[in-house]
Amino acid sequence: MSRILTPQIGRRHIVRGLTALTTLSLLPGVRSAVAAPDLVVTPAQTEGPFYPTDWAGDVDNDLVRVTGEAARAQGQITHVLGRMLDSSGAPLPGAAVEIWQCDATGIYRHPRDTHWLRERDAGFQGRGRTRAGADGGYTFRTTKPVAYPGRTPHIHFKVHAPGAGRLTTQMYVAGEPRNAADGLLNAIRSAAQRESLIVRLEPADALEPGALRGTFDIVLDI
Q1: Closest by Cα among 74, 55, 73 to 64
Q2: Does the pLDDT of residue 35 top 60, yes or no?
Q3: How far, in Å, CA of 209 to CA of 175, rounded?
Q4: How many CB atoms lie within 10 A of CB 91?
Q5: Contacts of 86 (CB under 8 A, 6+ apart)
Q6: Which of 78, 60, 57, 77 is nearest to 68 (CA)?
Q7: Could you give the CA distance from residue 179 to residue 13 in angstroms, rounded to a whole number?
């Protein structure tokens, strides 16, 4: 009986194949064929009642200083940075990123958020916009979010990636005791998705003395 010969794949052939596959994945416009590490899709959250009505004037990615105001914003300076990604881990360059949050006294820059006994911090920009770079990266210079009645500290995000859709979500601060009782945060059923919104803020003296730094990657479900 004749013997059926099975082709043997040597180590050299495997290495060559992997090299070719890696090279292909790095070509412009070609997605990686190698499975990316597991990414958690960023869950959507409510926009809330205080989405900015006024985007005129100073709306850059530095919320700590406002053009025309002598004083800097109250509160601890916090650098928030991250990347805009799709579910395979590919960057989304050019994606628009907006944030808004209350100031250090708990007041939003919004005509409906009024307080008789307190005044809004005029030195805090309140909202900002930027675009993701070629690597999907974005940065904001803001202040550490604070709590106000009914909510744990958070920062609102709204993103729009051309051809990839829109997402509104919120970023929370790790270690905040109010997180356990926040209705919106705990309405997220998936523990992994819930944890993906909670960011650890670390000392960032190398960036700016006394500042904090947190990394918040946003993954769109595409």
Answers
A1: 73
A2: no
A3: 22
A4: 17
A5: 92, 161, 164, 219, 220, 222
A6: 57
A7: 53
User: Residue 29 pLDDT more than 60?
Assistant: no
Considering Cα of 96, then 210, then 200, then 47, what sign does the dihedral take? negative
> Looking at the chain, which runs of residues are DSSP E strands?
77-86, 96-100, 127-131, 137-143, 154-161, 165-173, 198-199, 202-203, 212-215, 218-220
Rounded CA-CA distance 172/180 in Å is: 11
99 close to 142: Cβ distance less than 8 angstroms: yes
Q: What is the pLDDT of residue 37?
A: 64
Domain boundaries, the chain: 35-220
**Residue 194: its H or E element:** helix 191-196
**Residues with Cβ < 8 Å from 106, sequence gap 6 or more?**
118, 146, 147, 148, 149
* CATH code given to domain 35-220: 2.60.130.10
Q: Give the mean pLDDT of the chain.
A: 86
